[in-house]
Amino acid sequence: MKSGLMFVKLANPCSGEGAIYLINMCLPQLFEIKVFKEKNHSWFINESVQSGGLLHFATPVDPLFLLLHYLIKADKEGKFQPLDQVVMDDMFPDCILLLKLPELEKLLRHVTEEKEVDKKKYYKYSKEKTLKWLEKKVNQTVAALKTSKVNVSARVQSTAFFSGGQVSSDKDEDYVCYAHGLISDYIPKQLSDDLSKYLKLPEPPASVRNPPSKKAKLSDEPVNAKEDYTKFNSKDFKTVKVAAGRQKRDK
Questions:
Q1: Are 83 and 99 in contact (CB under 8 A)?
Q2: CA gyration radius, the chain
Q3: Same domain, 111 and 86
Q4: What value does the mean pLDDT take over residues 212-227?
Q5: Which InterPro entries does the UniProt record give (predicted)?
Q6: What is the pLDDT of residue 235?
Q7: 176 and 131 co-located in one domain
Q8: With contact defined as beta carbons under 8 Å apart, do 57 and 223 qualify?
Q9: Does 246 reside within a domain?
Q10: Are residues 131 and 76 in the same domain?
Q11: So what's the pLDDT on residue 123?
């Protein structure tokens, strides 16, 4: 692993299903993998044409979203626990790598209550703290959208979040609704609903509470763990790409 990069299968914090992530063990830092999809698209690589127009993006993601998945599950036991007993998963054993990420204790203070006994720390999920932290995330997202001059009004209304008579003229509310939707891709549905109430967002009409999936070229979903990306972990990425191109030309 010369580059320090490792593909891992982890639980998607929204659905709980397996998804592919990338960890830079040198920094260390966690990245999610998104895919750009477009039909009838190919790439020119050196002297060959590679069919399939998929383009994968690795973007940084806050590891606290993934840790929340385990903290919420452990909260059902109603007690404080050491973190190495909370972040355990037989299906996704690489989850323990999340515990090696920097400033972990500082991050956990945003979403947990903490106790220390005999110099060992124990944690328990705090819904109240989590909602406050998520509100800050929403506000940061709103600020980023405004700075980038992203027009969200049409997008919010196109999802039928407001009915014809409910369309809000309050621009800030549109931004908050849209930011809430973006953050909801990283948290369980129940927590998303709780956050919506916490932010005092209008409830969508019953007919559109489960809108159809968006058909964007850039997928809103993490890459599912159907293909074994971990086969690249022991190789240099540049070598893998060149070898693949040569193999394609030789056929």
A1: yes
A2: 21
A3: yes
A4: 50
A5: RNase_H2_suB, RNase_H2_suB_wHTH, Rnh202_N
A6: 52
A7: yes
A8: no
A9: no
A10: no
A11: 97
pLDDT average, residue stretch 62-90: 95
Residue 93 counted as domain residue:
yes
Q: Do 137 and 82 lie in a common domain?
A: no
Q: Where are the alpha helices (DSSP H) in the chain?
A: 63-74, 83-86, 104-108, 127-147, 153-158, 171-184, 189-198, 237-250
Are 75 and 128 spatial neighbours (Cβ–Cβ below 8 Å)? no
Residue type, 191: L
Contact 219, 34 (CB under 8 A): yes
pLDDT tens-digit map of 121-176: 999 999 999 999 999 999 999 999 999 988 887 667 655 444 444 444 447 888 99
Per the domain annotation, does 193 fall within a domain? Answer: yes
Task: Examine the pLDDT at 206 and tell me if it is beyond 60.
Answer: no
Predicted model pTM: 0.76
Task: Reduce the DSSP state of residue 9 to 3 states and report it.
Answer: strand
pLDDT mean over 50-76: 90
Question: Which SS3 state, helix, strand or coil, does residue 174 take?
Answer: helix
Q: Which residue has the tokens 């703290």?
A: 129
251 inside domain: no
User: What residue numbers bound the domain in which 55 lies?
Assistant: 1-61+213-241
Per-residue confidence (pLDDT) for residue 227, from 0 to 100 = 57
Distances (CA, A) of 151 to 157, 213, 214, 216: 11, 21, 17, 17
